[in-house]
Design a protein that fits this description.
Elements: E1 3-5, H1 6-13, H2 17-25, E2 33-34, E3 40-43, H3 44-58, H4 63-75, H5 80-124
Antiparallel strand pairs: 1-3, 2-3
Length: about 120
């Protein structure tokens, strides 16, 4: 099995090493192996799990929910229904946030148009 170091994992996902250590401390990256010197080793499975954690974090899932999700992954297939339900609920939350952001963006665009017009009018005087 191929492993990568914390610095390689950090570079791969463009996140600080401290974030990876934090994720491990919070239980989001269980079963991290270490080499003889105690350095973290990320297996291909750990990298895939990290990719999932980053995806969920980027979509504003709370750390506590991500932790629960990871715990269910570790428990195995007996939690598939729980994971599916969590993902459905989270997807709806993400869609709701996208909708809110899209609506809010209209207000920002309105302000940009208004200020651009006022600046152009001012410069014409």
């Amino acid at each position: 099995m191929k492993y990568c170091s914390i610095s390689e994992a950090s570079a791969k996902f463009n996140i600080p090493e401290s974030t990876l250590r934090y994720y491990e401390k919070k239980g989001l990256l269980p079963l991290i192996e270490r080499d003889g010197a105690g350095r973290r080793l990320f297996s291909e499975d750990q990298i895939a799990l990290l990719e999932t954690v980053i995806c969920l974090k980027n979509t504003h899932m709370p750390i506590s929910n991500i932790k629960q999700y990871i715990d269910w992954i570790v428990e195995g297939d007996c939690t598939l229904e729980l994971r599916l339900e969590m993902m459905k609920i989270h997807k709806q939350a993400v869609l709701d946030e996208i909708s809110l952001m899209t609506e809010s963006l209209k207000g920002i665009d309105f302000k940009i148009t208004r200020y651009t017009k006022r600046i152009q009018e001012r410069n014409e005087d």
